[in-house]
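Section 5.1 Outputs to date
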Amino acid sequence: MPLAIDACAAQHQGDRKEQQDRLAILPHAKKKGVALVVVADGMGGHTGGALAAEQVLHTAKTTLEHFAPAEESPRVLLENSMREAHTMIKASRFMNEKDPHSTAVMLLLQPGKVTWAHCGDSRLYRFHDGKLVRRTVDHSYVEHLVANGRITAEQALTHPNRNVLLTSLGGQEDPKFDFAEAEDIAGGDAFVLCSDGLWAYFDDAELGRIVAENSARNACEILIDHARARAAGSGDNISLAIIKLVEVPAEKPKAPVGFVPRRPG
């Protein structure tokens, strides 16, 4: 059955003085059905983080413009986007005397296939009919502790070092990327890309349920409203993009002009 895409991207500044997140849903200019979704969470003091996240978005746009799906692998596109952003963010230190960094999570949609990559703690979730199929694992100190059984996932939410990243774009060391791909996509699948300003306030079950029960646009509004209420005046920047795959019933063939269906009897 053919699939249609229900998509929405949304942001809120939260209780911060500046919006340092960047996000976009970027359709390929020449290839139908190809699009790149990007969420970047900038860090680095006043304007520094915003510049870093903006660089992630800029390099993603440029890389997508030159992407030839028949000749290049999705992983190469995603890795080139992040490596170029990392290089440019590092170079910007010499120009603005700041210490900019950014996380990044990207999803490349192609007919019958999706590929994603991330660096840092901006996340991608894959749900099917509201149930979690997979999510990215943060490159953070607390996720490292959870993976090694030293703390629980619940303890990670309130750990004093929960905001410490092990890698990011623009850092002194080469960044770490994780990649994944799926070719079994189907109606009922949903992908959520978001910064920690959103995911910090939801468990997987609630997030999946809200996305499944609402359109992409309504789900964005509900999730942001809940996150703002739960932040209680101390919320971070929020960015999220929701991509839902919806089955489209095939059209019934139309009867030829002048044809009269025979009635039984």
